[in-house]
Amino acid sequence: MLIVGSKALKFHYPNYPRTVRDIDVIGFSKDVEFLSNLLSPKEIVSGDNTIILKGISYKTDVFDTENVEILLADNSVSLKMYLDYDKDSIFASKEVLLSLKKSHINFPIKFKKHIHDFCFLMDCLDGQDVLEHITKINFQETESRFGKLKTPSLNKSVDQFFGQSKEYVKSYFVHDDIHRVMAHYEKPLFEKIIIEKTFALCDKKLWTILPFEHKCQCVLEEAYVISLERKILPMIFGGGKGYTSDEAFDWALMRICTTLCSGWFRDFATKNYFTIKKLYNKNYVEKFLTAYENGNITRQ
Prior knowledge:
By secondary structure, the protein is α+β, with helices and mostly antiparallel strands. Helices cover 51% and strands 9% of the residues. It has helices spanning 5-12, 29-39, 77-85, 94-104, 111-124, 132-146, 158-163, 175-182, 204-208, 212-238, 245-257, 263-271, 273-278, 284-293, and strands spanning 2-4, 22-27, 41-46, 50-56, 67-72. The protein has a 5-stranded mixed β-sheet. The N and C termini lie far apart (59 Å).
């Protein structure tokens, strides 16, 4: 049995700003029976590969919350590997905590909480996931439970790429025109990494040679465009749901880190999430609207 989640995080970092509301445990079916007898929960709820003990009647020094959730390792390769790695401890090691966070971070579930933990652990462990082989297995097992992460394929022409979302997203301006208006420099930074202008696919080698600041700005430009296209412009021109510029941007950056992008671009955005946030221009909507009022961009 191994305690993970916020309880284990607070064990290693007592000053970490997180309140432990529930305790997460990796264990076997026999551990569920042991904890049930020890803690006398008012209710036991079975979930997908999980058992939740609710309304703990007899709390202990360690199990001191209202609920305890057990992640069942009986049929999980990765969870058994975590248990074996930390076989001499009741609290998960920092390495296991990072691996767990990394294997879940691209799923848009409680992203706001998890991205803080992920980036904090990445900083503490110098960005090194020493359990990468287990992380990959846990990611695959997570996909088998929650469903495969579906991200748009860039391996198609620009027309085909944007055509696939016409049914879901109403366009008020040409996508590349918005990119041009939101560019940090004379041209949008994505133009430095595309293979050819008529194709949506980008080149990892071209991305690799970009300066770090340009990589952050490239993610920012993409987030500005997504927030404008998906949230702000439908609100202004289509009478859609209201969003502040901050809400729209946070949503767009979350989507880049989860289901809208993939591969090395998503990995960079996720690992450098808070650095990118620090470079965020709060006036990006005003910048776009000024360009529109001045005739530098027109509706299609």
